[in-house]
Write a structure and sequence with these properties.
By secondary structure, this protein is an all-alpha fold. The chain has 2 domains: 79 residues, Non-ribosomal Peptide Synthetase Peptidyl Carrier Protein, Chain A (Orthogonal Bundle); 41 residues. It is 87% helix and 0% strand. The chain contains 6 helices and no strands. Helix 1 runs antiparallel to helix 2, helix 1 crosses helix 4 and helix 3 packs antiparallel against helix 4. The radius of gyration is 28 Å and the shape is elongated.
Length: 135
């Protein structure tokens, strides 16, 4: 396990996600101030934001002012969330893991209980002495 590579990949994924969030913010702003440009940006961006840096390179070729605006918003977002993000991710993963384990345990115990019920049902139907108990 290469932890340094995992950290790099995670950072790159987070950068792309923040680019996407910045794009959504800019499109929302433009929809109020310049709807035709918002529509253009929406159409241009469709399916291109998987890699935020590649997306921004493409946008720079078409509309540099929008690329700069998205980069500015992205930088603002990261400044606002960067301080508490590591703890939120850590706590979120711990909570999600606990919930997954709980659900798994519930499924296992339900399976075990249903198997026991089935076995008891089969024993009751095959044991003639149990039929006489109700008389």
């Amino acid at each position: 396990m290469n932890l340094k590579q995992i950290a790099k990949d995670t950072a790159r994924t987070l950068q792309s996600y923040l680019t996407y969030q910045a794009l959504r913010t800019v499109m929302a702003q433009l929809s109020e101030t310049n709807p035709p440009l918002s529509i253009w940006l929406h159409n241009f961006s469709a399916g291109k934001v998987q890699d935020g840096e590649v997306y921004l390179e493409q946008l720079f070729r078409e509309k540099p002012d929008l690329a700069l605006r998205i980069m500015t918003v992205r930088e603002h977002i990261v400044e606002e969330v960067a301080d508490f993000l590591p703890e939120m991710v850590r706590a979120g993963i711990q909570q999600a893991n606990m919930e997954q384990r709980r659900q798994h345990l519930e499924r296992m115990t339900q399976l075990s209980l249903s198997n026991v019920s089935l076995e008891l049902g089969e024993q009751a139907s095959s044991d003639p002495n149990l039929d006489n108990l109700s008389s």
